[in-house]
Amino acid sequence: MNIDMIATDSGRRAFSFIAIVGGCIVFTIFIFISLWLLRDSPGFIFWLALAAHAQILLGMSALGWALGRRMLFSVTKDGATVDDKMGDR
């Protein structure tokens, strides 16, 4: 592997993609093991499932950000909206 490729925009995007996907895989394994260990405690599993959903949202948002997508979350009295558009590149 050529480490000099991190000096380019495409190389940094590739490394960030690998890091984010690797982090998502590690947390998926962590959640799987935690659910197995807590299989007799439904209360803990509920809160762990909520945390897993937050991690998925964060991981997918970070992955989109690294690939050039810009997400805008907006919550008003009328409801919530998510705007997903390409960045200024």
| Tally of DSSP β-strands | 2
Helix/strand-derived category reads alpha+beta
Distance between the first and last residues' Cα:
27 Å
Determine the number of helices (DSSP H or I, runs of at least 4 residues).
2
State mean pLDDT (0 to 100 scale): 78
Q: What portion of the residues fall into strands of 2 or more residues?
A: 15-25%
Number of domains: 1
**How does the major sheet shape up?**
2 strands, antiparallel
What is the approximate shape?
Answer: flat
Helix content: 55-70%
- Rg on CA atoms, Å: 17 Å
Order of helices and strands: HHEE
Can you tell me the residue ranges where pLDDT is under 50 for at least 5 consecutive residues?
none
Task: Describe, in plain words, how this protein is organized in 3D.
The protein has one domain. The protein has a two-stranded antiparallel sheet. Helix content is 61%, strand content 18%. It has two helices and two strands. The protein is of the alpha+beta class and 89 residues long. It is flat and about 50 Å long. A hairpin with a 2-residue loop joins strand 1 and strand 2.
